[in-house]
Amino acid sequence: MKTLFLSFFLLFSxxxxxxxxxxxxxxxxxxxxxxxxIDFNVTPGIIxxxxxxxxxxxxxxxxxxxxxxxxxxxxxxxxxxSLTKVFTASLFAILADExxxxxxxKVNDFLPPEFRNENLPDLSFEELITHTSGLPRLPRxxxxxxxxxxxxxxxx
Length: 156
Known about the structure:
Layout: H1 2-11, H2 21-34, E1 45-52, E2 55-65, E3 68-71, H3 83-97, H4 125-129
Antiparallel strand pairs: 1-2, 2-3
Helix pairs in contact: 1-2
């Protein structure tokens, strides 16, 4: 996965403007085939999306469900797991750079009163972003209300 992200950053460090979707697909195909270890027998499908100014490019690979010929679409939902940490930390860094808050800012200070946690008055954004808050990995009741085996987080 690291190779994939590195390849995308290097590949798209130049502007996408003027590139046709066909040309972009050719480059992404090369990266997926030669620079990643994606096994489409294990990972049924992926969508690669790129945004450049006012243009959006979506490239579809594989299927939405393993062992079923269900095509991927712009609204296909994936369980992305740990990848959200990268996006969350990146967005936090952007907002911190713009002065919205600092690493040592307390989370409760940014929540409406009804959502503040009295048991965690000193919880900082830095502790959340660096995973040093001491919060449990999963809630105690995780899985107890699960109704969809293929979507364990649907309840939350």
